[in-house]
Amino acid sequence: MRILCVIDNIGSGGAQRQLVNLAGGLKNLGNEVDFFYYNDYSKFFLEELNRFKIRIIKFNTIGKRNKPFQILSFLIKHLSKEKYDVIIAFMFAPSALCSVANFFSTNSSAKLIVSERSFYKDEKNWFKSLLFRATYFGANRIVCNSFTQKDWLCKFFPFYKNKICVIYNGIIPREIKITENNSKLTKTLLGVGRISREKNIETILYALIHFYENYGWLPKFKWAGSLNQSADKVYLKKLNEIIEASPCLKNNWEWLGQRNDVEDLMKNTDALVLASHYEGFANVVCESLNNAKPVFISDVCDHGRIIKHGENGYLFEKNSSIQLSNLFFTFYECKQSNYIGLRKSAYETYLQFFTFDNMVNRYTQEIQK
């Protein structure tokens, strides 16, 4: 089967990671897979695509005018020439371009699967989002990576209801052995993600301040995420002001910047902390569970479906820094046997929901429908 995977770029984003993994998985099943992208500002996943021996087709839009029309023209010609059986497009703009291009190509029989990788509350321009979704008329399947997003789409776009399905993110597995020796608490916590208001990082900061005021010590906290290109500079300034005003935070909080070794960072931390106002379903949660590390996570969207309080992590109200602080105390008061239990349950959750094979098999099922 000939498959074309399409996305805007191969930078270090979560959607890019998922599509690269999916392309590799479909290739390993014996399919002929090509990968198309059109913004060439980053080559973050180029090496991985080459490792999978996937043919890359790119259309560099840097410095060009009328970019969407040029990309569309290129795609129409390419789809007409190559005659793919299936097209898989991730994110709004690539999905819209593929839907229109597939309609006008001389090979409009190709099955089109589009995938939404974000959450509706993250959409800043609703009119633009509506226009993009109008192009889904040409899609055979619409994939969401959370049930919350699926339910919202079904409610507001009921005419697409029979096309919509959920496929959770898939992470390439790590071999994990959980022992007493590698389950000693380091008193270090980790946060991962872009620095933006949606991530609600201030709630974590206030939780740590409350923890110190009540218990007289503080775990180290490391945050991995770009401080430059994708960071909300105004928000970052606000966070730094909170940190600077609190000596306990100043000595125990560390901005790591963008990292490509998150899984290695997880080896030396006790748990992941995510206080988001909303999420699709963050890759980093899947990665934490894959590394058998429990998660402190805000009880929003699909989080409560996956994280079982006190079993594989902890749920808290998204704006309750006091509740989060108290959960930190509960966590660090637990016995090592309890921590080992949390780790085992976290890894079992990964095996149930987020394996690489499960994601590839689910897409294969949708292709065959």
Structure summarized in a few sentences:
By secondary structure, this protein is α/β, with parallel strands linked by helices. Helix content is 44%, strand content 16%.
Q: How many helical elements? A: 15
Helix content: 40-55%
- CATH C-level class of the largest domain is Alpha Beta
* Cα separation of the termini: 14 Å
> Which CATH architecture of the largest domain?
3-Layer(aba) Sandwich
Structural class: alpha/beta
Shape: globular
Which superfamily, in CATH terms, is the homologous superfamily of the largest domain? Answer: Glycogen Phosphorylase B
Total separate domains: 2
What is the percentage of strand-forming residues?
15-25%
Give the tags.
16% strand; 6-stranded parallel sheet; Rossmann fold; 369 residues; alpha/beta; single chain; 44% helix
Task: Write up this protein.
The protein is an alpha/beta fold and 369 residues long. The protein folds into 2 domains: 2-170 and 355-368, Rossmann fold, CATH 3.40.50.2000; 188-353, Glycogen Phosphorylase B (Rossmann fold, 3-Layer(aba) Sandwich), CATH 3.40.50. It has 15 helices and 13 strands. The strands form 2 sheets. The protein has a 7-stranded parallel sheet, with helices on both faces. Strands 10-9-8-11-12-13 form a 6-stranded parallel sheet, with helices on both faces. β11 (271-274), α11 (283-290) and β12 (295-298) form a beta-alpha-beta unit. The longest helix is centred in the C-terminal third of the chain and has 18 residues, at 336-353. It is globular. The chain starts with a strand and ends with a helix.
